[in-house]
Automatic annotation (TrEMBL):
Enzyme's top EC category: oxidoreductase
Enzyme active site: E250
Similarity annotation: Belongs to the aldehyde dehydrogenase family.
CDD domains in UniProt: ALDH_AldA-AAD23400 (cd07106)
Name of the featured protein: aldehyde dehydrogenase (NAD(+))
Matching InterPro entries: Ald_DH/histidinol_DH, Ald_DH_C, Ald_DH_CS_CYS, Ald_DH_CS_GLU, Ald_DH_N, Aldehyde_DH_dom, LUC3-like
Keywords per UniProt: Oxidoreductase
E.C. code: 1.2.1.3
UniProt keyword Lipid metabolism present: no
Name of one Pfam family that matches: Aldedh
């Protein structure tokens, strides 16, 4: 069906979506507006039966959806994009309330939904042929079945579409589980999609951690796509192993940025700061450790401190570039890094060690000057607006320091000599390395981590294959 220009959608009632229909529940929970601490709307907690019904509906819808030509699937994805674009204002306002994002950055995330789908609609699955005198061997890639997509709270819209767009494009059916901290935009996104896709193709069942565990053990779920913490990712992989599910795990990071001595300090320092503090530091590929050459350490740090002082925090409508921490649990975790740094006597170059109480979960961006290598702020991921800097003098040694971590999601190298910077980038053990930019993952390239930052990857043409099985036909000529 073509999207109607009079499409209506209520943005103050929320449902799970099972087999094309809205579902409520006697059990409810609430998101919290992180700017005010106030409870938001009721959200149903999906039951085991809700999940069973969703899996059955996805399994039932799968054969017809998998047999739908890819061009038709692309057409429906584009119709959904057109329909979504009728509601960008409402989705932006909703994202501001549930995630606390500044309106400008919430708008960027909302705009990314259409951009993400449109790019994936330019892709096609590869087909490989080999022929000799005896046979013709054709390799194709076929969909897996029902995919469970477990989404995080830091980018609830773009990371949801980052799972279901390639999942649906490749012919799978998808059940989305939004984070209980940010359930609203994802549930509304899937509700809207029912005007375009057949029942059971894209569903949403939100709830608690118990629901996620049921997804990972269900025998009729073919794959789990999970974005979240390393600790939870290990549990997902362990549970999924019981049924040999395919898994893609995009987990935590502790990204290093190496600043070479030839950089333009006034130009680069603010960019490095933005890499650390964008989305209030709540980004898996945010800059988490900054290594500055000793020749420029003091002036570069001073330039960072100067720019950091201009970064105010505030509610979405305040024009402040940084919002609050999204939830109380994360707020308390980030505060523990402040408390540890204060207790150990580390130098606070920017910000203050004391996080004052307020009605929202606000923390001013903070820089820790040259803490030791074994400090928590160096070795662990805060996932908030606090970042350490350290000087370096020997290139081999700083590369070893950058790689001395159990994670490997992203990294950055900054330098005027781009060829020299690229040589450094090649030696960094991370899935995505950025030269002369802070971390900006793009749907045009596969996104995944090395080491404990994940298993596999998604996005881009290569990422499509993570939603497929290889299917090889050998035809013998005689």
């Amino acid at each position: 069906m073509s999207p109607s220009k009079t499409s209506t959608l209520s943005f103050d009632t929320f449902y799970n979506i099972v087999d094309g229909k809205q579902r409520s529940s006697k059990e409810i929970h609430h998101g919290v507006n992180p700017s005010t601490g106030e409870e938001l709307w009721d959200v149903p907690i999906g039951s085991k039966q809700d999940l069973e019904d969703a899996v059955a509906a996805g399994k039932k819808a799968f054969p017809a959806w998998a047999a739908t030509p890819i061009e038709k699937r692309k057409e429906l994805l584009q119709k959904f994009t057109d329909l979504f674009n009728e509601h960008t204002t409402e989705f932006t306002e909703l994202l501001c309330k549930e995630a606390g994002k500044p309106k400008k950055f919430a708008g960027i995330e909302v705009a990314g939904v259409g951009g993400f789908i449109s790019f994936h609609n330019t892709l096609n699955l590869p087909e490989e042929k080999f022929e000799d005198d005896e046979k013709v061997v054709t390799t194709r890639f076929t969909p897996l079945g029902v995919v469970g997509a477990i989404c995080p709270w830091n980018f609830p819209l773009i990371l949801a579409v980052g799972k279901f767009a390639p999942g649906l494009l490749t012919g799978n059916t998808v059940i989305l589980k939004p984070s209980p901290f940010t359930p609203y935009t994802a549930l509304k996104l899937v509700e809207l999609a029912q005007q375009v896709f057949p029942p059971g193709v894209l569903q949403a069942v939100g709830g608690n951690n118990e629901l996620g565990a049921l997804l990972t053990t269900h025998p009729d779920i073919a794959k789990i796509s999970f974005t979240g913490s390393i600790a939870t990712g290990k549990k997902v992989m362990e549970a999924s192993a019981k049924t040999l599910k395919r898994v893609t795990l995009e987990l935590g990071g502790n990204d290093a940025s190496i600043i070479l001595p030839d950089v333009d300090i006034e130009k680069v320092a603010p960019e490095v700061v933005m890499g650390a503090f964008q989305n209030t530091g709540q980004v898996c590929v945010a800059t988490k450790r900054i290594y500055i050459h000793e020749k420029i350490y003091k002036p570069f740090l001073e330039a960072m401190v100067k720019f950091t002082a201009t970064l105010k925090t505030g509610a979405p409508d305040s024009e402040a570039p940084l919002g609050p921490i999204q939830n109380q649990m994360q707020f308390d975790k980030v505060k523990s890094f402040f408390a540890d740094s204060k207790a150990k006597g580390y130098k606070f170059a920017a910000g203050t060690p004391d996080v004052s109480a307020s009605k929202g979960f606000f923390i001013q961006p903070t820089i820790i000057d040259n803490p030791p290598n074994d400090s928590r702020i160096i070795s662990e991921e805060p996932f908030g607006p606090i970042v350490p800097t350290q000087p370096w003098s020997d290139l081999d040694e700083v590369i070893a320091r950058a790689n001395d971590t159990n994670t490997g999601l992203g990294a950055c190298v900054w330098g005027k000599d781009v060829a020299a910077a690229e040589k450094v980038a090649l030696r960094l053990e991370a899935g995505s390395v950025f030269v002369n930019s802070w971390e900006k993952p793009t749907p045009q390239a596969i996104f995944g981590g090395h080491k404990e930052s994940g298993i596999g990857g998604e996005w881009g043409n290569t990422g499509l294959l993570s939603f497929c099985n290889a299917h090889v036909i050998h035809v013998y000529k005689s």
